[in-house]
Amino acid sequence: MGYYMNSDDRQNARSNIQLVNFEENSSVSNNTTNRVSTYILIGMGVLLLVIIIVLVIVVTSRNNKNAEPIPSECTCEIGGAVLAQTQEHKLSLILDWENSICEEPVCLHHTKEFMQPSAIDRDEKDCPDFPKLNASCYQCKDKCLSFDDLKLKKGEKLHCSERVTVDCCLISAIGKLNNYCGDNGQYECFKEDVHEKNNVTIYDPICKCKDGFKGGRCETENKFNSKCKCYNGMLRLKDEDKLKECGNTIESSVNVCSTSITHDNGAFKCVCNTTDSSSDN
Length: 281
Fold this sequence. Notes:
The chain is α+β, with helices and mostly antiparallel strands. The chain has 4 helices and 17 strands. It has helices spanning about 5-65, 145-150, 170-175, 190-195; strands at about 75-80, 80-85, 90-95, 105-115, 140, 145, 155-160, 165, 185-190, 205-210, 215, 220, 225-230, 235, 245, 255-265, 265-280.
């Protein structure tokens, strides 16, 4: 026997089908709405970020246009130092050592010893060899003339196996063999003007002393101490590249030179004033 649906049952069935369809449509619509909202929020965030970046670029550009150009080197004094700024925006301290006060621990007082250069800066005269000469005398026929004998005969012509003039070169040669100038000089002959300057005849050799020695036979030390101001090695000194480096000797025309020392506090750069000195003698 078959089931018969009356009009009320059919109406209820249609209502249920419509309800299910409505719920399905509502679910699809809600999902679509949520995705659209998410995309809108992302788009607004990206747009806001772009606006911020553009504003930053515009403001920076305006500031750069209004800013004064940085010179190649601008300086301002800070006490004894000078603050220097370059185009690379690097800062370095340049110390004005001429006007600064030397105070520890940034600066140390130091004394450097210099040797005075040789008083004679000319090349010696070329002299010949003397084969008949030994450490004690010059053999002339049956006589052996000593260093003192030759000095008494300077300028004379000797009639030995061959004629020879007792000149500066001969006296110099025997004087060297007798170590006349000691270990600190050489017994040499020079051009006439050098002999005149040293108040000796052209027949008398002159002791050319090593740096740091003086005297007729180079017997006296010739040194002096110079006062130096030494600054922390991290600092750059004013005109540092133009300062002459201090050696063991210093030319009389150089008043200031630079050197380096190592101290308990590290490396130091020194500026030595050679005019502010004291002699050891």
